[in-house]
Amino acid sequence: MTTPILSPEKLDALQELVNIGMGTAGAALAEALGGFVGLAVPGIDLTNRLNVAALFDVGSWAEDELEAVHQPFFGAFMGESMIVFDGRVHAHLANLPGYAVAPGAELSSAEQQEVLLDLANVVIGACVNGIAEPLQEIVSFAAPARFGSRSEIRTFLSRDAAAWHQGLIVNVDFKLEARSFLSRVLVFLPEHSLQRIDAALTRLLDGLAAG
Amino acid sequence: MALPPVEPQPGLPRLPIALLTILVDRINVGILTVAADGTVLQWNRFLHAHTRLSPEEVIGGNLYERFSALPRAWLEQKLRRVFLLKTFAFTSWRQRPYLFRIEDHRPLTGGSEPMRQDCAFIPLVHDGEVRAVSIVIIDVTDTYESQTRLDETLATLAAQSERDGLTGVYNRRKLEQVLETEIQRARRYRQELSVLMFDIDHFKRVNDTHGHLVGDEAIRHVATKAVSTLRATDFVARYGGEEFVALLPGEAVSGALIAAERLREAVAKPFAALVEIPLSITISVGVTGLRPDTAAAKMLLAEADQALYASKQAGRDRVTAFDPLTASAVH
What region, left, alpha or beta, does residue A100 occupy, with left being phi > 0 and alpha being psi -120 to 50 degrees? Predict the structure, then answer.
């Protein structure tokens, strides 16, 4: 079975485009969430090279308290995205701007989950669009879902490389002004989506060369 | 309205927009579309039927004014994010039971609860701009109902799996779990923890004389007395055939001996048990307590068992404490 992996030139081009896309996504998120939003330079890796667990081995990631939401997307290319928060996110859910929560109010567990799922949806949506838009593609989303337990998250993240499908993982750190929780978005693009991305990159690069 | 027949077009066959509109109108999900300022642009038949408000009554008006029961601040912010980020948003019945309150519409099979709804907010992007947002509302009342039944069944099963079928007190498996956690708790908070082990004297004779049904009544009698004479915070389990264990958190052996004596006296009173004359049975009890040198839960049970054995040896119908100094039981 041949593996159509993006050429090094295409990977570089994709990295450049995604950098720009995440810049736009960060600005839109800042407006939507009402505050400075930091989106780090995204990392792009082929799954067979990337040790996903290692992304979560340092600092407060290494603690047991994690919260994670996953969400599939489809359309021009399809894949699945996942956002992982460290446990401190819970303390901030009751005072995120833009979530119509009265100051100092205690959130019920359902309200907490709703805010968490929507925050995850918004950040994932912006990041996936940050990949799709520079490629001039449009994607749709299915509903986000929360991982059932912390051990489920750990088990999932620490699967070895062989258990991951062939594909590409874009990972990007997200930070909300003055809020001390970490969050990291992983966007997984499986092999068959890479063909579509390869074609889009060819189109864009040819356009640049012609222009 | 007369529509042209669908004819194969040259090139890519396409559904005429007019037919697509019919699909959107007739599909069995709710679809409404709103502009950035909250003006309703579309209201399909599903919503018409369930809210009894026609498109004429809703379209062109402001969503929040037309439906004052909507959680306005929350919904405005949710829609604003969809417009800004050009991305989808969702709600689930698990956190928010419904967006529009719709009474149950199933006259045959329905219950009294309002329709549970999953919603998707879809940005309608054209030329790079979000022109409007469609809200797709899916009736998930069936899912809600089966999930509720499943939750109830699981709760019942979980309760049953830790209870003894005959007496309703906890079973041995649950006892073993609780004993471990009670030992940890007592150590953490430096509290006392006592254990009673007791069984029915000459139980075989009860069975042989009156039959197994009366034997079962005797077992139930002991369980009932244990639950009623011990404190609500004590834990009673059926350990084996006619053998029980009780955990008394916060109670030293001296107090546990008093509780055990009260239990012994309560059990000894005659009780009605399917036979013409009231039946009298007695129990023997062994008592021990957690000490700093207690190595394991098993050790506590073994000590209580040893003290119970001493009660039997000494003539039954009595309470004996385990003596850690001689590693034997004393009366």
Answer: left
Q: Tell me if B94 and A110 make a contact (CB, 8 A cut-off).
A: yes
Beta-bridge partners for B321: B287, B330
Query: Which domains are assigned to chain B?
Result: 17-157 (3.30.450.20), 162-330 (3.30.70.270)
CB interface of B with A, residues 92-151, below 8 Å: 92, 94-96, 118, 120, 122, 125
pTM: 0.74
Which range of A75-84, A170-179, B57-66 scores highest in mean pLDDT? It is: B57-66
Distance, in Å, from the CA atom of B194 to the CA atom of B310, rounded to the nearest integer, reads 18
Question: Mind listing the pLDDT tens digit for each residue in B235-273?
Answer: 999 999 999 999 999 999 999 999 999 999 999 999 887
If one compares B144 and B11, the residue with the highest pLDDT of the two is B144
- Is A29 within 8 Å of chain B by CB? yes
Contacts of A128 in chain B (CB under 8 A): 87
Query: How long, in residues, is chain A?
Result: 211
Contacts of B95 in chain A (CB under 8 A): 110-111, 113-114, 117
- DSSP structure class, residue A41: P
The domains found in chain A, sorted by start residue, are 8-209 (3.40.1550.10)
A140 with B122: Cβ contact below 8 A:
yes
User: Most B CBs within 10 Å: which of A141, A146, A185, as the mutation test of the B interface?
Assistant: A141
Q: How many inter-chain contacts (A to B, CB under 8 Å) are there?
A: 64
Residue B219 corresponds to which tokens in the numbers above? 């077992």
**Cβ-defined contact of B85 to A125 (cutoff 8 Å):** yes
Q: What is the pLDDT of residues A77-92, one digit of tens each?
A: 899 999 999 888 888 8
- State the Cα–Cα distance between residues A206 and A200, nearest whole angstrom: 10
| Other residues' Cβ atoms within 10 Å of the Cβ of residue B11 | 6
Q: Which residue of B has its CA nearest to A144?
A: B90
Beta strands (DSSP E) in chain B are: 30-34, 40-43, 89-91, 117-126, 129-139, 193-200, 235-238, 243-249, 283-289, 319-323, 328-330
- Other beta carbons within 10 Å of B238: 25
Cβ of A137 under 8 Å from any chain B Cβ? no
Interchain CB distance below 8 Å, A114 and B95: yes
DSSP state of B271: B
Residue labelled with tokens 């909507």:
B70
Inter-chain contact B84–A117, Cβ cutoff 8 Å?
no
Q: What is the pLDDT of residue B1?
A: 47
Three-state DSSP class for residue A178: coil
CA–CA distance, A195 with A209 (Å, rounded to integer): 21
